[in-house]
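Entry 12.
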Amino acid sequence: MCGTLKEFAANLSKADFFLVGEVAGSDEDAQRYRDVLGQNLNATLDIGQSRRTLHSVAKGLTAPSDYFAMLLNWDPVFGTHSNLGAMHVSILDDHDHVSGDKVRFSSDAASDHQVVAGVAIQLFSLGIPCIYYGTEQAFAGPEKALRDQFLPDYNVGNPPPDKYLREAMFGPEHPRKQGTNGIPSGPAGQDATFPGFGPFGTVGHHCFDPSASAFVRIAALVKVRQLYPVLRYGRQYQRGISIYGTPFLNPPKGELIAWSRLFDDEEALCIVNGHGTDQRGGQVVVDRSVNSGAGAFLQVIANSAQAATSVYTGTHPVGEHVPVQVRDGIAFVQINNLSPSEVLVLINRP
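Predicted 3D structure (tokens):
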């Protein structure tokens, strides 16, 4: 089937048709499936353990190294490991959640924008980011008080129902009637005996809000990803951090999540506060070979907190030059008081 689709696309002058597959099972199963089909299947969705681990890391419940180590599942046959980025599609939410809980990332989140931490990891780490509709609006399913009182099937059963992952962005007054009876437009095709299932349990209301706290942050980060090729094509390295002068180590859960993308002599340093309620900071390792010499610095090119306000008074505003320092032969930058679930991106070649 994959080969047939490719041939059909090529016959329409789409010789580089990019085909993504959803393979039920583990991420290792997806890789084996792709290996068997070769170039007829370009990439697979990360619907296995990768998605669950991404959830946990972005909420500060799991050490960041647990997610970055999962790249070992995609072992390239040749070339730089950055080639892995074109072989898998990262997801934070989706319509099934074939494994794990049937709840969106933002369910019981610490804030309306905590989801930005997860999306930022998608956007700036290896892989093709896929943002499921409503994630950018922090859709969370039914409110906790509602589901506890009226929805005994919420995330219960084997498997639990996935309908709460599929709330509509634009809630209709009523659902359509079954079969051909639902074809007529307007009230004639609606089933008036049931309310429409809209966002957050609303009826006849839409929740696409371009000023929403999560949306404005994600939009700003997407724009930065588009502007800087290093964030799309660069090699990737998780970065150690030092807190209050401790040794540089991969951080535990709930601390700064830091990684670099390197592309020739460019380094983009991506930093996410993995804690949902407290500020975090530390000394973050950078590549000394491309950041050497007196006056070396990285410039802030994205600050998610700043994107969400017209008057920003916090740390590390866009445009700030953060000096590269050296301790015990290790180059680093000092990051101070990054607010909960917020994101910074710095680059050495602005």
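Annotation: The first strand starts at residue 20 and ends at 21. The mean pLDDT is 88.
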